[in-house]
Write a structure and sequence with these properties.
Layout (H helix, E strand, L loop, with lengths): L1 H4 L3 H9 L6 H10 L4 H18 L6 H23 L32 E2 L3 H9 L5 E3 L6 E4 L6 E2 L20 E2 L13 E5 L4 E6 L2 E3 L2 E3 L2 E6 L8 E2 L15 H6 L6 E5 L2 E5 L14 E3 L2 E4 L13 H12 L2 E6 L4 E3 L14 E3 L5 H4 E5 L5
């Protein structure tokens, strides 16, 4: 477990004892290593922390007892998760090259959400989102760069060039970064590169540099494509969700169908977040919260809209069936596909317009709940 979480055996053992509330990073690493939902465990940890904070001025009495009970319950439930994931539990296979889906089938990005909760400010939020006057699909040379390593790919020890301590501990501690010298190094202005290892672990590298000694990252995160879309360590979107979450892949375009939710950014994120996000890079009192959900109303007859280009029809159907999640602050509203992929029906270039989808009339904003 220490190898899987990057935490010391002592920290994990102390968290399991339940004598005191463990650090959030330890609690989340422990729970997720055992198959728990990261967002759910963050809420449980915060509830226990709130009870402890409330009890400190009065070290005796009922509130202190409730706080201790919350901490003990946290440890006992974590132990139950461990028992439920004993050695006979078999992890799903890693995402293969050409896979159209990442993460587990019950992840928020891979489930349909038939009854999202509509925001009372939905219409105003849609107007703000569409205010710049365009919606883009990032494709071709503007897409997200994703490499897939094999068991023969050489691996390297990587320490971020900057931000260790300021932004948290080294997210790559205990993990090896795969890199094939034949891969094209990303351009200096390309901020993120994702390398998926043969075990399904995704190394997400910000401002990658490649030298004869190997790759290096200014900062980054580690995610597991076999589990949750929430990054295990580090942070690569303001929401704490992996950059692979919501990515349209080559396999999606080839299949002619997108069987997962999409992701997007908005320039109006506040500092708050909702499920499935675990954080936000927004500031102030913006209308949007990281993790908010958008979808196209079912009354939109996409098949009857003959003006749509093939790739627009695919995006529209994905938004109607699976929706999309706000994962970060961004300069404009848009969706992203894999680097080098070609959206069917697009004449070429780095960006494909989505101007024929009737967002103004049919786009809705709300939230979804975690799976039971």
């Amino acid at each position: 477990m220490g190898a899987r979480t990057g935490q010391s055996p002592g920290a994990l053992s102390e968290a399991a004892e339940g004598k005191r509330l463990p650090p959030l990073a330890v609690a989340l690493a422990y729970a997720q290593a055992c198959g728990g939902n990261r967002a759910e465990w963050e809420r449980r940890w915060q509830a226990a922390r709130n009870e402890l904070d409330a009890s400190r001025p009065r070290p005796t009495g009922r509130r202190w007892a409730v706080a201790v009970a919350g901490v003990v319950a946290l440890a006992l439930t974590a132990a139950a998760v461990v028992l439920a994931n004993r050695p006979d539990h078999r992890a799903p296979p890693p995402a293969a090259a050409g896979s159209s889906r990442f993460f587990s089938d019950d992840d928020a990005f891979n489930r349909r959400h038939p009854h999202p909760r509509l925001s009372p400010d939905s219409a105003r939020m849609v107007s703000a989102l569409l205010a710049p006057g365009r919606v883009k699909l990032y494709t071709g040379t503007a897409g997200s760069l994703v490499y897939r390593a094999t068991s023969r790919t050489r691996t390297y020890e990587v320490t971020p060039r900057e931000h260790v301590g300021q932004w948290g501990p080294n997210p790559f501690d205990g993990a090896r970064f795969p890199w094939d010298p034949s891969w094209k190094a990303p351009a200096p202005d390309r901020e993120w590169t994702v390398v998926i290892g043969p075990d399904g672990r995704a190394m997400e590298c910000w401002r990658t540099k490649v030298s004869p000694a190997g790759p290096s990252c200014e900062w980054g995160a580690v995610s597991d494509t076999r589990g949750s879309s929430v990054s295990e360590k580090g942070q690569d979107t303001g929401s704490g969700l992996s950059r692979l979450a919501g990515l349209i892949t080559r396999a999606d375009w080839k299949a002619g169908r997108i069987d997962h939710a999409l992701s997007f950014g908005t320039p109006d994120n506040s500092g708050r977040h909702v499920f499935p996000a675990v954080g936000s890079d927004g500031q102030g009192q913006g209308l949007w919260r990281a993790g908010q959900f958008i979808w196209l109303d079912p009354s939109y007859d996409i098949d009857a809209d003959t003006s749509l280009r093939p790739y627009e029809r695919m995006v529209a159907k994905a938004l109607q069936e699976y929706g999309a999640f706000d994962v970060k602050n961004a300069q404009e509203f848009g969706f992203t596909s894999e680097f080098g992929s070609q959206a069917p029906g697009n004449s070429g270039g780095a960006y494909a317009p989505l101007d024929r989808i009737d967002f103004a009339k049919y786009l809705r904003v709300g939230t979804v709940e975690p799976s039971p």
